[in-house]
Amino acid sequence: MIGVMGAGAFGTALAVSLARLGEVVALWAHDADHVAEMNAARENAKRLPGVALADNIRPTADIPDAGPLILAVPMQRLRGVLETHADALKGRLLIAACKGIDLATHLGPVETIAQVIPGAQPAILTGPSFAADIARGLPTALTLACGDAVLGERLQQALTTPNIRIYRTTDTHGAELGGALKNVIAIAAGAAIGKGMGDSARAALMTRGFAEIRRLAQARGAQPETLMGLSGFGDLVLTCTSDLSRNYRFGLALGRGEAFDSDTTVEGVATARAVTEWAGELGIDMPICSAVAALCAGKFSVAEALQSLLSRPLKEE
């Protein structure tokens, strides 16, 4: 059995894809009413409407007691979920499927799992992907990062499905930070497009934003090749160019001066604040992330944020 904790769109899509392997997939939700609705309708109408749940997907409010667990919960809720269910998660294989940096601790998903659940075997599944594509069976490539190379190979085999191809690495820092920081850059890219500043401005923000990602991640021990892969550059490209990206759409709304759905999780907002604080402590220059944090906090307008970047001292690339 494989368990997916978190019945949002992405967790549900992963459960749908994993179910194609033929084994039982437990799909956990904290809300018993939500579980009952999924069991009755055989779909997750709240989060991924129109996608049928196969017979071997079992919505449940109980933590599965066997097999690896994929933690598909928002980053800012991950610690709370781990603490609440610590006894049931001791010694388990825990694979994070969230992207971000914890506001309180400045830790990523793997580091958070290791801190809260000593003895757990943590990993992260990340990369350029949208729930709708995965659920529809469209081809997707992801990175599985696990510090234990042998365990990582085992998980790679267990989690690869007919439409999800998984590449593995032991570089958890690179995978965590590439996936987290690209959301911040996606907000900047969306804001530029929403403000009518054009594709050239977006390309510049993506390129210089990637330089910021590399600076911080490599200072934390990440490997350059990880950042050039799916969980870094690949995820950045997708998130900064597609209307399916919540972070990009949030940036578009900022640029256009429009309201955004408050029920939609936008991980880049909290990550921008966390990474700006963290980079300041480390003495690392991250002007785009800092501008996004100020923009999200209402301290800058989009025009002021972009002007602050354009007016920086000239330098070599």
UniProtKB/TrEMBL annotation:
Residues binding sn-glycerol 3-phosphate, per UniProt: K99, G127, S129, K182, D235, S245, R246, N247
UniProt-annotated location(s): Cytoplasm
Binding site for NAD(+): G6, A7, G8, A9, F10, G11, A131, R246
Pathway assignment: Membrane lipid metabolism; glycerophospholipid metabolism
PROSITE patterns: NAD_G3PDH
Residue sites binding substrate per the record: K99, R246, N247
Catalytic activity: sn-glycerol 3-phosphate + NAD(+) = dihydroxyacetone phosphate + NADH + H(+); sn-glycerol 3-phosphate + NADP(+) = dihydroxyacetone phosphate + NADPH + H(+)
Enzyme Commission no: 1.1.1.94
Occurrences of domain Glycerol-3-phosphate dehydrogenase NAD-dependent C-terminal (ranges): 171-306
Keywords for the protein's UniProt record, in alphabetical order: Cytoplasm, Lipid biosynthesis, Lipid metabolism, NAD, NADP, Nucleotide-binding, Oxidoreductase, Phospholipid biosynthesis, Phospholipid metabolism
SUPFAM superfamilies: 6-phosphogluconate dehydrogenase C-terminal domain-like, NAD(P)-binding Rossmann-fold domains
Family to which the UniProt record says this protein belongs: Belongs to the NAD-dependent glycerol-3-phosphate dehydrogenase family.
Stated role: Catalyzes the reduction of the glycolytic intermediate dihydroxyacetone phosphate (DHAP) to sn-glycerol 3-phosphate (G3P), the key precursor for phospholipid synthesis.
Protein name: Glycerol-3-phosphate dehydrogenase [NAD(P)+]
Organism: Rhodalgimonas zhirmunskyi
